[in-house]
Request: fold
Amino acid sequence: MKKISRIAITPGEPAGIGPDILVQLAQQEQCAQLVAIANPELLHDRAKRLDLPLSIIPFDKNATAQYSKPGELYVEAVELTSIPEPGVANSDSGEYVLKTLDCAIAHCRNGSLDALITGPINKHVINQHLSRTNNQRAIFSGHTEYLAEQTQTPRVVMMLATANSESSLLSRPLRVALATTHLPLRDIADAIQPEMLEETLRILQQDLISHFGISQPNILVCGLNPHAGEQGDLGDEELKIIEPCLAKLRSQGMQLSPALPADTLFTAKYLDTADAVLAMYHDQGLPVLKSHGFGQAVNITLGLPFIRTSVDHGTAFDLAGTGKASVSSLRAAINMSIDLCQKANNE
Reply:
């Protein structure tokens, strides 16, 4: 009998569309047990505003896993000081968002939940909370970095993937991983170092094999500089750092392209044979991916001790509470999580 996956969902910023899309999606038949790590009153409030039925079932980790039925949602309750007005950000929400993440991480670490899906957050709201409470932790720069820190994972890799080929220009799904994530542009060149690049490529290679069942991944690698440095005329990171790293890993059996100019790499000529692309920084790779599959793309964190996916959009405060937010990216994230869980269970 196929194991029923138990999947945690943190809806994210409570004043954004995260609660909306979770309540909307809960109206549909599910192929997993979805467990919201959230405040029940918030979910009831949003369901009422959307005029949708919602029955909340307290999550019991010791009970037998059950498929979520339409109109039902399993919930692990997290305290929220006050229910925010949709679309109105409040720094009090920052503490709540971090509590939902910590709770979900604990469940995934102890095996009571199989995967984590994160909803959209507002980093500024979280950092307002940290500043107001004189918290000594570093600035909150994103889910990816926070999950790595909380699980003591030395390095993780952020990858976005289209669920399928939405563009007629491409014949296969597009997967774009990032060597660096949420860094200011002026810091990126200094962050591209041989050890970091090698670790990132090894994680990408291993998870393409273990999570996606690709026995010999073909990975395309972007150069850092325009035209991949023009043999050092436009920057020497390709010559001094990137190419020597690629040569070392090729000698160990990895299938890697040379450092390619990003302005030509993202064309069908190259992508039709690629299992993944490694971009050097966030806005080098993700605008292309989102132009091909926005609303259908899934954010995946590679290298964590559990499966984590996320939606590809933000909080959309202007849509919160209106019923106009699309559930397509959350549905894609759930489907991806179920698929990855099933692959893990079959190993």
About this structure: The radius of gyration is 20 Å. The first helix runs from residue 18 to 25.
